[in-house]
Amino acid sequence: MSFHKKIMFSLLLAFLLGIWANLSSQTIDSDNNWITILIFVCEFVGKLFLNGLKMVVIPLVLTSVICGVSQISSDRDFGRLGLKTLLIYSLTGLLAVCTGLLCVNLIKPGDVDQETKDAIIANQGGGHSPSMDKAMQTANDGWQNLAEIFHRMLPPNLFSAAAEGQLLGLICFGLLFGFFLGRSNSAFGKVQQNFWQGLQEIVLKITNFILGFAPLGIFALVTPTLAKSGLDAFWLMGGFALTVLLALGIHALVALPVLMKVVGGIRFTAHYRAMTPALLTAFSTASSSATLPVTMDCVTRKVGVSKKISSFTLPLGATLNMDGTALFECVVVIFLAQFFGIEMGWVTQFSVVLLALLTSVGVAGIPSASLVAILVILQSVGFDDSAIATGVGMVYVVDRILDMTRTMINVLGDSCAAAVIGKTEGEENYYPPQ
Questions:
Q1: Buried/exposed code over 220-229 (b: 16+ C-beta within 10 A; e: otherwise)
Q2: CB–CB of 199/370 below 8 Å?
């Protein structure tokens, strides 16, 4: 069985077992039965796998950026490649947000009857959590959070930033280090290049070893999520959830394929098939950063993008390019405006589009990042504290399932951008037979 088929099989098994466990827990004593043991074992194994992926993120990002930039900094490719990357990322993000804006205005999931409103508001208390409180505290400074992106670009302590998972500062350091390393013609510069390339090779071998456990890890991550929450909350907020999923689907199956075909002449079916392991890993982990090792492996080995391109674009994309997150933020704000009866004209909605693009980047390193971004936007467009607290609680009820899906779109957007940039740089040998 091929690797991506193993992952799909484990994901299907996790869905079936998770839903069955959730339904069974409602009819038997869940304090002392096999469900408790199942959840404990799965959480233990899932955390091991997730920790393994996170363990290699920092060395993989640092070595990839330094090696990638050092190879291109000595010629004119550096400026051109950087400009292309920013343009493609901006374009995919804008397409995603506009797709979300169109869907939420056409479907109007927030226009529900009063009985449904009361049921949703009553149910939102179950979605309250310490992470939501932390997100609300973080967002109290409003626009100051957007300024934090520049502070995180230049962290005062690089090791502290790495320990906290602040990839933006690490990437900026890697860009500077790789740029000047590539321009060093001394003997010490050659030794340094050999060192970083050798270190990257070892890190990639460790990454491939950890990825061998992906089917088991994905099963262990998804099963307890469904066993605990089931799909009740999803049905209650069904209109909103389906709007988000529809918008994400249109972006993934229409906008990105058109962009790939027009700009790069790439068939999206071959690309999606090659990226299947990374997409399923993103769905199960709900973390673009944790999925980065799998994304880089798929883009270089299965898609065929050179390490020169992928080492430069993908670490940046995991931090800066959040198509799914930006789309989600836009839909949430318009949905809550519809729900609470707040008039929001096209000028205000356009400001929401810009804020969604900015905040999807600006708060990427903060826990509960999407909630923080949503709070910043809601404050900026004039929602009062009561509506914000109620609205975020409502969204949190279905956030886990939608978070898994939008992370998958984030990773897909990064991979599509890398493939398109590679094509515009003259690369041809894509999708080699496995």
A1: bbbbbbbbeb
A2: no
Q: Which two three-digit tokens encode residue 283? A: 């769905």
Distance, in Å, from the CA atom of 49 to the CA atom of 120, rounded to the nearest integer, reads 35
Distances in whole angstroms, Cα of residue 341 to Cα of each of 112, 216, 378, 390, 398: 10, 46, 14, 14, 21
51-107 tens-digit pLDDT: 888 788 788 878 888 887 787 766 666 778 888 888 999 899 999 999 999 999 999
Q: Which domains does the chain have, with CATH numbers?
A: 3-424 (1.10.3860.10)
Report which of 290, 277, 281 is spatially closest to residue 217, judged by C-alpha positions. Answer: 281
pLDDT in tens, 392-406: 777 776 777 788 898
Token pair 């883009």: residue: 299
Q: Is the pLDDT of residue 132 over 50?
A: no
What tokens were used for 191? 């030794």
> How many other CB atoms are found less than 10 A from the CB of residue 349?
17
Query: What tokens were used for 342?
Result: 């707040």
| pTM, 2 dp | 0.75
Give which of 64, 93, 52, 66 is closest to 290, Cα–Cα.
Answer: 52
Structure tokens at 9: 């099989």
